[in-house]
Amino acid sequence: MSLSFIAALIWMVVVNLRGMFPSKDHHWKFAYAMIAIGVPILIWVYIDHGLLLALILLLGAMWVMRWPVIYLTRWIRRQVGL
Question: What is the pTM of this model?
Fold first, then answer.
């Protein structure tokens, strides 16, 4: 396994573990930090392994952090007017 893939798996484990514990702000500060860390890791995986593995990891990250994705799609729909 490459270092980029190991970093992505560690990111997934950390996000999953943190999501199991309660939070007063419903994990939003943590989500922003993990998105800021996860995007460079995803780019790193893309450079090392190509598009297919990067897309699989992106789908996994979207599954784990589903609420930021849901709010982003709602915001985009409001902007477009759908």
Answer: 0.85
